[in-house]
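Journal club side-thread
Mid-discussion, someone asked how the predicted structure for our own chain would compare to the paper's figures. Pasting it here so we can look after the session.
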Amino acid sequence: MSRLRELGETVGQQVFEGVGRVSSRAQERRPLPVDLLESDDAYLAVFDAPGADREDVQIRFDENTLYVRIDRFREFYEDFEMRVPGRGLALDGQVTLPEEASVEEGAAKATLTDSGTIQVRLPKVGGDTTIDVENEAGTD
């Protein structure tokens, strides 16, 4: 009877570990949540990006769509090994502006806040496809 219990516990542990791996993979593929706001003079896209560093963030604007990619590197913890990776290494997000939107791409400004959001301000009306990211305090 105890061998049957051991077998049940082993199978249960394998199922639990498998579910953990599957959920961590799903988490790695999940898009960055985004809000798109509009004022009289600009659009503001706000992406959730907790734990991201400025160097991890890539932003581009192409054909009325704003793309954000975060290649986040996991920290190593002494005396610990990774069992279930769940915080994702590559996170992608995008938002498409309304069809009638016309923005000045060259005047776009991206800010990585201390609270873990990326805010991209796109002034309305017309140029450049690469957007630099600043820290909230305005330092590089």
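Post-session note: Residues 23-27, 126-130 have pLDDT under 50 and may be disordered.
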